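Moderator note: this is an archived Q&A kept for reference. The question asked for a predicted structure of one protein chain; the sequence and the answer are reproduced below.
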Amino acid sequence: MSRAAVGPAESGLRPLGSAFAALGVPGFCLIVLGALVRAHEAGLACPDWPLCFGLLVPEMNLRVGFEWSHRVLAGAISLGFLGLSIRALRRPDTPAGAQRLIWITGLLLGIQILLGVLEGATGNFTEGNHRRQFGQQGKQLGSGSFTLGEL
């Protein structure tokens, strides 16, 4: 399809759609980083939220590095999604189906964030809590995969 055949509304939405699709790459990296957090039992390496030891950039060791990096990447993806969503939803030419997907993905992202915060707040990475850990991590991986799929 030539540039001339693409209408102004469609050509303006294409870069926006590409930007949403590009969030899938850091989204996948976030899932991998989350697995590293779990494998190294680093989920409570930062005891407070949203800071880490009361600092924006804490003193690093391997566990703190995994957990802190996971938080930073999750925050960057969330802010990117929020900015793109606001831009797309403000456009009068954004199709209704795309608007629904944005709202659904936003809801899934909110659930994912809530699950992550609750995981840290409930101490699911303590010894002897493996059954509960598996259930919570399954919920996070499931909602994270759905969120990534929506992007």
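Archived answer notes: The CA atoms of residues 108 and 130 lie 25 Å apart.
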